[in-house]
Protein 1
Amino acid sequence: MKTTKAPLSHADLLQLKRWNTPTIYNGWEQVTRQDPSVEGFNLEETRDFMPQMGPMVGYAITVVIEPSNPNHRRERPNAWSEYREYIVNGPGPKVVVVQDLDKPRVIGSFWGEVNSNIHGALGCVGTITDGAIRDLDEMNNAGFKALARRLCVGHAYSQPVRWNCEVEVFGRKVRPGELIHADKHGFLVIAPEDQAELLAAARYMDMAECSTLIAAARSAAGKNAKELLELIEQAGVEFSQLVRRRDGVRTVASGVPPDVEGGVPPPG
């Protein structure tokens, strides 16, 4: 599977990293033609083992593992070398998305101190795996972020089985080269056609919320219930106007704009 060329500059990615994943989602739903109620994000719960690192942003490197199966080592003894050649040729920064065929009965970890340091040297900033990780303190020391199912002790027969292919983790399919934004809330997979407008849309939606509804909610002191409700109602109208002003509301895949008064997605 061909890896998508990175359309965003490193400066753009650094700016995307300044916001949490829900804020990026708010921008993404403005530019995508996917259905933002069911597509793009993880459908199963993830666990961020390094929340203190903040969000991670990068292009997907994909790999499938099956640590319980010893046959893979015999059948493909050069897998690690071939897999690393694939990694080094991908656009960076990179997020390694690992599908564990053993789940939910996780047997061994693909990740630990050695693998996180090697992947970091090859331009990877972290991983999303529906399997396990180990050497948590050492991975933190390497600065390698991980969203995973759980911790475990051993690695079993862990090695790459397939790579540069579509994978599915936490209920979401990911293709090589797709942009990923992830943090303690989960992750968002941004298709190539949605990437160019994402930064401007996220920045705009953050401004719209901060200058209307959030500002109104923070101005509650000294107001009675009626005044407060009127203030919030007016702020909602202003928020809707700001969103409409941004080149109109994009229609999602179903052909129906997001379901809210005025055709504007709800704040949150």
Note: The longest strand covers residues 56-65.
Protein 2
Amino acid sequence: MTRDPSLGAARFPRKRRPPVLTGTREERQEVDRGQYLAPLLGLMMIMIDGYDLQSIGYVAPEIARAWSLDIAAFGIVFAAGLAGTIPGAMLAGPAARRFGPGAVLKMSLLVFGVGTLATAQAGNLSQLAMLRFIVGVGLGAAVPIVLTSVAQNSPARFRTALVTAAGCGQPIGAILGSALCARLIPTFGWKAAFVLGGVLPLLVLPGVQVLLEGRRARDDLASTPKAADRPSGRVRDLFSPEFRATTLLIWAAAGLCVCFLYIIVNWLPGIVRGRGYSFESSVLMIGLFNTGTLIGALVFGALIDRFGPFKVLPTALLAGGVFLSLLDVSINLRPLLLAASLFSGFTGGGGGMCLAAMLVLLYPSGLRTTGTGWALAIGKLGAALGPIAITFALRAGLAKEHLFYVAGAAATMAALCLIALAKVRASPIGVSGDPSTRGP
């Protein structure tokens, strides 16, 4: 007698694996043209952020030479740019709910562009720091709105990939910034890097409406919540019993990731120049770091879809801590230093980039912009204080090369925060931000 295979399946049902990143039933809709344009425009806007982040690292050594200053004095300039992003990111959610995300994003890009153009006319460190703070305010308000818009305009089944891809605009912009600065600065001087950085955000202003016009009515910035108990987007909702532990741990992890990323992009070019490497070699090394970051973000983003963020990201960041520390060990061996730059970007940079994309997915739609903005702001608060502390440490006698150990320790501690976050979360992360339903 032939056995019916369906009987065995009925008696011993296969255990379904709960989805790690999934959307609600209502979010599974067909992809329209606007849902392709939104991630593309978001990618372009985040690329400008990446260019700005990297260009100051290249410009600082040239300004130091032109003004006869020690590169260690630029810690306050690096900190000012980061400090500006804090109030910008904190105010992004409340301002978007009051005035509309389009108006806030346009104003942010305008402040970003005009402030960067004005930076080219700075005549001393005080002016440079003040203008970098203003640029940071515009940049800080723009990023959470862009990421939230990409998440809310992306279909559920592609949302993780598209948000991660948009976040990859930062290393792409940094890589392009490396190539452009290598051409612009030797030929036209350091001011040319700021002129280009100021023109770019003004050029993408017309795309803001396209980025936001596909926003679906169910999203928190365009509709009224249907359920009375849905988070209202207020800051105090981040500390409700449901989200308190998530908020504190993700803030710590985000701060540590931003800290080690900013250490590398701000200090690596100056450190290798100080050890006798050419300007082109410093561009190559930071370019390899950013290339590794881009590849790592794409690879880890795909692995997250399969294995979940709490298995992939801690492993990546722990490995990143090792490779970041190797930058100090290999400082005098050019081939080893190039390899360490690439692999530290792949592991630490790629893991940190995926963490930035995960911020958008941790909270439900009603709390998404506020949660993302405050996580970025608090994260950068620690990173803003970092350069100031580093400046004092360098003046006290700390070798610049030892900063790579600090970066490695920050990546390791970020991994430990994510391990703790995995233990306190009761359910997997949904693409919509809502806890996904476990299978039987």
Note: Residues 33-67 form the longest helix (35 residues).
Protein 3
Amino acid sequence: MGAAAALVMVGDALAAAIARLAAAGVPEPRADAEVLLARALGTTRAGLVVGARRPLPEGAARDFAALLDRRAGREPLPYIVGEREFWSLPFAVDRRVLAPRPETELVVETALRLAPAARRILDLGTGSGAIAAALARVCASDVSADALAVARANVARHAPGVALVRGDLLAPFRAAAFDLVAANPPYVTDAELGGLAPEVRDHEPRVALAAGPDGLAALGRLVAEAPRVLAPGGWLVMEVGAGQAAAVRRLAEAGAERRQAARGGSRAGVDLGRAAGAARAFVRSARSARAPDGPPAELDTGRYVRIEVVRDHAGIARVLALRLGGGRWTRS
């Protein structure tokens, strides 16, 4: 009789869990509680509705309590369940990698739209391997051996032809190796780190987040170094933090000016000021998707000739795409 009185109904257990997660500050307490309870019961979230008036089995109750403790401690839900969906594909994730974000799908969308003919593709800083698997025809790299271990399992499942390379940004790769470089590099400023949500600040790998005082440490290097590894006409497509697009664009424009000025300065009698001014004018004309490709290809090699800013559904600039001058993609 006492044992029967102690039984808890599935619906009551869910209601109590929602209240607990809400009190802990979890952003989506109902959705997370439903996912965890469904996992403990071996059912779906829809199955919870059907079984709301049924008793919660003792074993499932124990499993649910353990899962709930972790989420109330603000451990990310994808780490608890061991999986996160990206590009309609399931990816194994844990504390060694960032859980893929919906906004990163914009990198994939932009890459496919701007460079559909690209064949030699690099997913730089691959983490879980999400971008690599979505684009499929790629090489993927990361500085972290732990991250590559996670990526290896995911690409074996979704894109077994992807090659994995360990290295710091673009250092391992030869000149003109790629038609497209796609990246979600670290871009969180030192000042922002402490204010991140506990799920990110306390659980996700700091190496995949922190990017120095201005958040541009990795982005600046990437913009500067990508022209070396991109084939003529190749694209660099990268995610940036909210509010960073203008600063990264300025880095790209400044690099174009320096390269143009250096090219002009190698000829006797060329006015470097006029060369820089011409570069600025050309970059301004190439900022939108409708801008012309610019001067003859042979004059553009080694500098960005088109800059496109891509905004998310909230109107925030989250992706920058930079096209290198000098021709079209190779199709090897």
Note: Confidence is low (pLDDT under 50) at residues 265-299.
